[in-house]
Structures are given as C-alpha cells and as structure tokens.
Specification:
This protein has 14 helices and 10 strands. Strand 9, helix 10 and strand 10 form a beta-alpha-beta unit. The protein is an alpha/beta fold. The longest helix is centred in the last third of the chain and has 17 residues. Strands 1-2-3-6-7-8-9-10 form an 8-stranded parallel beta barrel. A two-stranded antiparallel ribbon has the order 4-5. The protein has one domain: Alpha-Beta Barrel (TIM Barrel).
Amino acid sequence: MHANHLAGGMFILGFDGTAVDAGLRETVRRWRPAGFILFRRNIGTPLQLARLCADLHGLYPSDDPPLISVDQEGGRVARLRAPFTELPSARVLGALYARTGSLALAARAAAVTAAELTAVGINFNYAPVLDVDSNPANPIIGDRAYGGTPELVSAVARAVIDGYQRHGLMACGKHFPGHGDTATDSHLDLPVVPRDRESLEDIELPPFRDAVAAGVAALMTAHVLYPALDPDWPATLSGAILTDLLRDELGYDGLIVTDNMEMRGVWGRWPAAELTRRAVNAGCDLFIGGGGGLDGRHPQTEIQLELLTTLAGQIAAGEVGSARLAASAARLRAAKQQCMLRSYAAPDAETLAQRINAPAHQALVAELAAAQQAAG
C-alpha cells in the first residue's frame, strides 16, 4: 500500500463546508483517511448532515465504512443542537445516579444519543468522559465529568458505553490517564498532574480500568504531563503511559486515539516529525486533526496536513515499521466489527424527521428535567 494511504489510515480529518466537494474527494483519493471529525461548521439541518455523511460513506467501500465522528457529550459539549435532542451534562446524569442508585436514565440518554447520531450517519462519538472531577479549579472538565469519585464515574460510564455500542455507535472514553485534576486547559498549554503513582491508581485510573473491562472501543489520550508516570512526555507521546500502562498493565487492545493534535499541549512544543514518531511509537492508532483553530470557527488549519505528510515520509523511509502500522489497522477493523459499523445511506426527509427528537426522546428530556427539579 502507498505510504500516503498508510499514513492516512491513521488520521481522522476535519474539513470545511457542509457538503462533499472536489477538494474533499481529492483528499480522500490521495490519503484515504480512516475517517472524519465533524464540527459546528459542518452541521446545518439533520437532512443536510445525513446527506453529507452518506456522501462521505460513498467515497469508501461499502464493506469498510469510514469513521465519522463528533463530540456529543451532552451539556456544553454538543456539536448537534436543536432540532436534535439536547441532553444535559454528564454531571447531571451522575448526580441522578448518586441520588437514586439507578442507571436507567443514563442508559436511556446514551441510547437516544446513539439513535440520533447513527440516524444521520455518525458512527463514532468522543464520549463518555472518564475523568474524575477532583479539582474545583479545573477550567476544562468540570461538569463534563459524571462526578467526583471514581466509583460514580465508572458506574455511569459503563452504562453509557453499553448504550452506545449496542446501538452501533463506537464509544471513545477520554482523556487517558485522567484530565480531572488539571488546573490548566490542554487546548492552550501543557497541564501537569502532580499526583503520585498511588494517588493516580486510586483516583484517575479506576474508570479507565472499568471501561477496558466494559469493552470500550476506543480511548482518547490526554495532552497532559504526569511526572509520576513519565517525567518527560505527555500521555499522547509516552510509551510508558500508553504501552506499558494502558496496553500491558490494563490489558487494553482497543483503539488509542489522540486528542486533537492542534491543541497547544502538543502542537508548537515539538516539531511535527517528533510528534508523529513519538505518538505512533508510544501506541497511538489514530490521530485527530482539523479543528479549524482552537475555537473551531476558522478555516481549516494546515496542521493536520503537515502531520499527514510527515508521517507518510517516515513510513516511506522505513522509520515507522510495517508491523506497527498493521497492528493499528487490525485494531480499527476489530472496533468496526465489534460495534457493527455499516455503510450508510441517507433516509428520506420524513423518516429522518421521525428519528430526530422523537416523542420518546422528548419524554426522556422531560423526565431528566423533572428528576433534576426534584433533587433541588
């Protein structure tokens, strides 16, 4: 296989626009990326989104669909807004579980998310958040976490993982090995978690261990430094964290996905060649690019193309071994099979309207609101 396609097979790319155009077709022809990440700039109406995803699927063999991914956590991190069903934050679901001991509402919320995303052709969601909300000064996690104890986070996250994956939506737990105790935002800087190894074992790691046991299809790395685990490299670039800890100690053999590579926790701190070489050697299977700037509103950045080109050159030069590439490709195939990913064709407008914000979905939102109100 050509080095460009081998490199592309390790990338999830962002793009501009709300439809497949000649430029995007050429990108797929040249690189054959593993898939795409959608942002607000790509999303208009449900019908538009369904046609966009169907056209992206149409660029790939029907028996090997692309990953079409999105951040749809609920609460403040949700790319799909009304008329899609808008669900509350993870903290709300966690608080309801803590109060009632029931995971029924969390499981139903996950099923609604899976139903609506797959209805428009999205098959990969960057959720659930597995971070423990243990630092009140954290500027980026907060209510995105299910709660402040690993036991609570684990319980709700396992229900969400099951709810996604039994309905054909790949789950991606994040941000390994834990972003909950940071005091800075990895979009803007390189955070440091100063916990000792014992504390990491007690607080940060249990939800990830439990997600591995639950069969989570993918885990996302944190652009965060953990001196107790690796004094030199953030998790995304650390073999000690991704291979020794996650693969070997936790026994995880699913997909390892980087957080967005244009974030300042990694980009600009090391040359592109260092980033690609270290991430691949550390154990990453897929790179996420293409946020279009830190706020997602700028024209598509060149960062992902620089990383792509760099990795292709390293592959062509033999700096990245074929066995390493084959292992990542095998994990991607296994994840698709595990979650029953299939090729997608857009339904007609009437069918789609019945699947988006359906009466049962509206009823769930009302139940969640009532449960919140009852909790005071």
